[in-house]
Amino acid sequence: MAMQRSTHFDESGQAQMVDVTAKSITARTATATAVVSMNAQAAQSIRQGDSRKGDVLAVARLAAITGTKWTSTLIPLCHAIPIEGVEVGFQWLDEPAAPSTEGTTPTSLLRCTATVKTTYKTGVEMEAMTAASVAALTIYDMLKSVDRSMEIRQTRLEHKDGGKSGLFQR
Amino acid sequence: MAMQRSTHFDESGQAQMVDVTAKSITARTATATAVVSMNAQAAQSIRQGDSRKGDVLAVARLAAITGTKWTSTLIPLCHAIPIEGVEVGFQWLDEPAAPSTEGTTPTSLLRCTATVKTTYKTGVEMEAMTAASVAALTIYDMLKSVDRSMEIRQTRLEHKDGGKSGLFQR
Amino acid sequence: MAMQRSTHFDESGQAQMVDVTAKSITARTATATAVVSMNAQAAQSIRQGDSRKGDVLAVARLAAITGTKWTSTLIPLCHAIPIEGVEVGFQWLDEPAAPSTEGTTPTSLLRCTATVKTTYKTGVEMEAMTAASVAALTIYDMLKSVDRSMEIRQTRLEHKDGGKSGLFQR
Amino acid sequence: MAMQRSTHFDESGQAQMVDVTAKSITARTATATAVVSMNAQAAQSIRQGDSRKGDVLAVARLAAITGTKWTSTLIPLCHAIPIEGVEVGFQWLDEPAAPSTEGTTPTSLLRCTATVKTTYKTGVEMEAMTAASVAALTIYDMLKSVDRSMEIRQTRLEHKDGGKSGLFQR
Amino acid sequence: MAMQRSTHFDESGQAQMVDVTAKSITARTATATAVVSMNAQAAQSIRQGDSRKGDVLAVARLAAITGTKWTSTLIPLCHAIPIEGVEVGFQWLDEPAAPSTEGTTPTSLLRCTATVKTTYKTGVEMEAMTAASVAALTIYDMLKSVDRSMEIRQTRLEHKDGGKSGLFQR
Amino acid sequence: MAMQRSTHFDESGQAQMVDVTAKSITARTATATAVVSMNAQAAQSIRQGDSRKGDVLAVARLAAITGTKWTSTLIPLCHAIPIEGVEVGFQWLDEPAAPSTEGTTPTSLLRCTATVKTTYKTGVEMEAMTAASVAALTIYDMLKSVDRSMEIRQTRLEHKDGGKSGLFQR
């Protein structure tokens, strides 16, 4: 099998920010999700945000949107990309997307979905992945006093389009 | 069951940065992990970093260390904490820590572990969680051209000590 | 009258970050306010946030809290201060705190109040002033498509205590 | 009256970064002002900057210019915009632009004016507003040891042109 | 001799961010170098990085790449530029590029070279100069416990092309 | 000769942020300098700053002061340190501190000196080195349109005291 090299290293194996000078400027979209597992008490605390006892998801949504702006700060070899739109949503999963890894009682699962758009020479997968991660981390932060065992599961790219590598759809 | 409120909201449900003025300054430690699943080609690409074909883990380790410094930027209600030490390690898991969620063929699993220390009024759980997440996101970034289906699984707190809430050990 | 010199300049008039090495670490609090004037339509849009048509004040509150963390980035000679607590509130003023400066019809006035706490060698007036300003700027940003003529009026320190200069109360 | 919705919320009232993908790239300019009121001693301290006893306005000007670069960090739903030019000026107002709100003796009024330019899909009103605010906050910071009662008054947009919404002139 | 004015000041001598609105978008490249002098022990410590006793140059390379993203934060009147590619290399100089300034025994000299690319209205000289400086500062940081007398010498632009001012080659 | 290991790597050669938990909090000072060489025209342009044709050194001084706050962002393994005071000065050198490296005609030499203070567990050498570097880079930026061949020479630590390693004086 011919070895495929990550484009983030040059021929001698040194890290570089990939030269995108010659790439085409095209419209690009990426969507990523992160799933947070939590106990019943934490889930109840979030749901009550609707009744204004503290809106965890409003905070997490804002954190995710602003998180997209920090992607190139966090990920060393990322280009800074002009982000043209961000949407963040949340959905309770009736059935676990990922089985509990320790045989414990079932937990509530909340999925964070972030969609990011740009018109640039390189894509926004990392911005979407970072947004979903930051949403999940913020939820953990706000509820860790209620359930310190919360886990972030299955952070992953769901969709991307635009650019030379074309469509990716899970 | 009496409802437990997240401390990040005041009595009327408004977000706040929790007042820690009166808390004691104590030594605190937190450890978090994130597990990345990837296909064989991506795993091979990382392992070859040892032979200087591009050291993915060295980049991810640095990203995780510097990521701890951005925690209070990413997480809206986090205090900025004087971080006094960070260690980041990686370990290949022979057996999957999390079963594949879609019945696909087994994948390689790499665990990122971040330990953060401070001497302050509040703990570094979020710094450790952020470091582990950034390590995993950086690995995804560097290898997404090889395997765009990589997933980050099971980001979670493993250990914390110090402070009023005391020891947490999974 | 003997001329009083700003402490941010040395004897030859050069800017400096004031040396606070020898100052005492004490608990300090500061409160600042900013008043935003707007037309009836913009005011209605904010009030409807309570009924979940878009919660402008939740966004402004978070922006103000995170804004405190950027104070020493924005204000060149400010020290970076360990912020230990932030509260942000909003209040509609029945009677204008500041008369309209152009003889136009009366507008609605919304007051943003930010209180910041630290235990450090220097105070948090600038953090409170910045938080109130950022709250007001965020409100302007979110409603400028409704009323581009909105104004921020009367951003000022209301209260400070702690430190050598002692209590300030308007 | 049909309710006008802020574009920063989607149809269900959730915050978003507005999608500007389809907007035209055009030259855009925005000018904003902030007025600072201060006592005679503080005003004298600034004026003496000309004679090199400490140049408050040079510091405030630089803070305002660099402040434009932090706009999308401070204002959660702002796009990061490629800023192509910034000018900052100061003018003493012989007659108060805003009457004192508390019946106190007349104060000196200094107006900070910031003009920002871009060629992009969305405008630079917030960059101009932020620059004017940061100039005023920096002046407050440098002279608060001389006059802690200084106020920032009447931060507002004076002019914008370019883009779909066209010309705004006060 | 007619006096040439820096473009960073307007006609009255006030600092400004130069208006580049009307400039052409062209491909631009810049290369800068910094030379670090160190004693034999520090040099040995770096060379052993190849044998995985701690890879100083891998850390310095990453710091230089990410340093390019901070240029407009560090340099007050710099425009934020969309960086499209960064390469960083290191070379041991057999013969000193700069003679020791104090008549001490010869030291080892290591040259850091950074090349930055953009397609924009203004050039990336400052990004290349900043990258080379940050590489050198990082090397100093990592080895100052071994040789606190290390010096950074001869940071300078080696090459630039693109834009109205055309080619510069040392 | 027994090999001395940089403290920024652990025993297996992996980068880490050094654990300073157990170190004593003491007053610490560091002073660093950077020397900029330039042609006569550039030097004249700076000197005329005194007569208000554009004050290059005022901009460079502010950039250096704010640069100290970015040190831990730029240098990956640096701790974020509470900076308690910064002074930045400039001095023309009548005689070159560093001989021209290319046999060209003598140039003017300007020395930037930065002194930084803290009371913390680790020192501020890197903050002083970064401040001196940023001052020099800013001077280059502002005058590169006048003399693109300017060089930064001899950035180095001049003095440090406080902490376990004690006094360093060149």
Topology (SSEs and partners):
The structure is a homohexamer of 170-residue chains.
Chain A: E1 26-38, H1 40-47, H2 56-69, H3 71-74, E2 83-93, E3 108-120, H4 125-143, E4 151-161, E5 168-169
Antiparallel strand pairs in A: 1-3, 1-4, 2-3, 4-5
Helix pairs in contact in A: 2-4
Number of strands of chain A: 5
Segments of chain A where pLDDT lies below 50 for 5+ residues? none
The greatest interface here is: C-D, 69 and 68 residues
Quaternary structure classification: homohexamer
End-to-end separation of chain A: 25 Å
Mean pLDDT of chain A: 89
Report the C-alpha radius of gyration of chain A, rounded.
18 Å
Largest sheet of chain A: 5 strands, antiparallel
- Integer count of domains of chain A: 1
Shape of chain A: elongated
Q: Give the strand content of chain A.
A: 25-35%
Going across the biggest sheet of chain A, name each strand in turn: 2-3-1-4-5
CATH-defined fold name of chain A: Alpha-Beta Plaits
The count of helical stretches of chain A stands at 4
Keywords (chains A, B, C, D, E, F): Lyase, Molybdenum cofactor biosynthesis
Domain Molybdopterin cofactor biosynthesis C (MoaC) (chains A, B, C, D, E, F): 17-163
Protein name (chains A, B, C, D, E, F): cyclic pyranopterin monophosphate synthase
Function (chains A, B, C, D, E, F): Catalyzes the conversion of (8S)-3',8-cyclo-7,8-dihydroguanosine 5'-triphosphate to cyclic pyranopterin monophosphate (cPMP).
Description:
6 copies of one chain form a homohexamer. Chain A has a single domain, classed as Molybdopterin cofactor biosynthesis C (MoaC) domain (Alpha-Beta Plaits, 2-Layer Sandwich), CATH 3.30.70.640. Helices cover about 25% and strands about 30% of the residues of chain A. Chain A has helices spanning about 40-45, 55-70, 70-75, 125-145; strands at about 25-40, 85-95, 110-120, 150-160, 170. Chain A has a 5-stranded antiparallel beta sheet with strand order 2-3-1-4-5. In chain A, helix 2 packs antiparallel against helix 4. Chain A is elongated, with a radius of gyration of 18 Å. The relative contact order of chain A is 0.27. The model of chain A has no long low-confidence stretch (mean pLDDT about 90). Chains in contact: A-B, A-C, A-D, A-E, B-C, B-E, B-F, C-D, C-F, D-E, D-F, E-F. Strand 4 of chain E pairs antiparallel with strand 4 of chain F.
